[in-house]
Design goal:
- The complex is a heterodimer of chains A (112) and B (112).
- Chain A is mainly beta and 112 residues long.
- Helix content of chain A is 0%, strand content 57%.
- The termini of chain A are far apart.
- Chain B has 112 residues and is mainly beta.
- In chain B, strand 7 (64-68) and strand 8 form a beta hairpin.
- Classes of the chains: A mainly beta (112), B mainly beta (112).
- The A-B interface holds A 31-32, 34, 36, 41-45, 48, 50, 88, 90, 92, 96-106 and B 3-4, 31-33, 35, 42-45, 47-50, 55-56, 58, 88, 90, 92, 94, 99-106.
Amino acid sequence: EDKVVQSPLSLVVHEGDTVTLNCSYEVTNFRSLLWYKQEKKAPTFLFMLTSSGIEKKSGRLSSILDKKELFSILNITATQTGDSAVYLCAVEAEGGSQGNLIFGKGTKLSVK
Amino acid sequence: KAGVTQTPRYLIKTRGQQVTLSCSPISGHRSVSWYQQTPGQGLQFLFEYFSETQRNKGNFPGRFSGRQFSNSRSEMNVSTLELGDSALYLCASSLVGAHEQYFGPGTRLTVT
């Protein structure tokens, strides 16, 4: 069965800290891995990764995928209170699974 | 460009009733996916529509159904509501062949 596991489930840090969120997956015919940030309602898209070893970066956030070890990390440097949210990792599979993102349970980040 | 919109935003129904939720995708997006989000299960895929056809379906009972119109707007229907159907229902749209999905604000359904 396809699954996505995120760790830790929750995390409390102080402003200015750097955090690393983890996402491991088992999916047949991997196509892409996506990261979303969910603050109140709608998850907002952060990154999509399809190739191993290529870092995606946006400001203080960055992410990398390891297709051999089946995991991805999301790094946030110099955290701010506005980074407090649930971060969701999702995986899309090839063929026959159009539109179906398999989500992890998320990591709840609290920045104090 | 306007984002994904969902109506209504909040809904309270009683057991046994049925409900219809609506989703308007981003202009130009032809694929619409629906998800159920609960604290215990996280985000779970319901179904995906493209060109008025359901291409993919998750593991939900037949009480959950949907459709898509020629303008790509989509509706989902839940019949014979149960207490366990209380959840945030999210819809997401994407371009044909695109990996990333963009989410609407969701409809919060409470079944009493």
